[in-house]
Amino acid sequence: MSDYTIANLKEIDDSAGERAPAFEARFGRKHLDSEHLGVSYFRYGPGARSTVGHSHREQEEAYVVIGGSGRIKLNDEIVKLRQWDVVRVAPQTVRAFEGGPDGLEVIAVGADRPEGGDGVIVKDWWTE
């Protein structure tokens, strides 16, 4: 393995694809050849909300708002977000995002995770 890796997040395949036109998800972990770090890019269109929440069994995450504004639901609390806000989320906290009037762009950073991942999906979670 090299001492460094460079990857452009916008050149990584969009995992959401055509099935979710108001949402973009680009997962950089495997493209960085990192043993301990995951970095991903997410874009939510104006007013687009993820009705699916997720938590983790072990992995703590941090999210950096790099563009636009919106909201994040953390367990039962909904918090407004603006550009350059950083949100640290404990593993067991269920979370989901919603884009504001101009949409929301977020970089997610995660650490080590168990083999195969440790995400726990909560369907129909943010449906207000």
> What is the residue-mean pLDDT, rounded to a whole number?
93
Output the number of helix runs.
0
Briefly note the structural class of the backbone: mainly beta
Low-confidence stretches: none
The span between the termini is 47 Å
**Gyration radius, to the nearest Å?**
14 Å
**What is the percentage of strand-forming residues?**
over 45%
Q: Kindly report the oligomeric state of this protein.
A: single chain
Order of helices and strands: EEEEEEEE
Helix fraction, binned, reads under 10%
Keywords:
mainly beta; 8 strands
Structural features, described:
The protein is mostly beta strands. Helices cover about 0% and strands about 45% of the residues. It contains no helices and eight strands. It has strands at about 25, 40-45, 55, 60-75, 75-80, 85-90, 95-110, 120. Strands 1, 2, 4, 5, 6 and 7 form a six-stranded antiparallel β-sheet that branches. Strands 3-8 form a two-stranded antiparallel sheet. A hairpin with a 2-residue loop joins strand 4 and strand 5. The mean pLDDT is about 95.
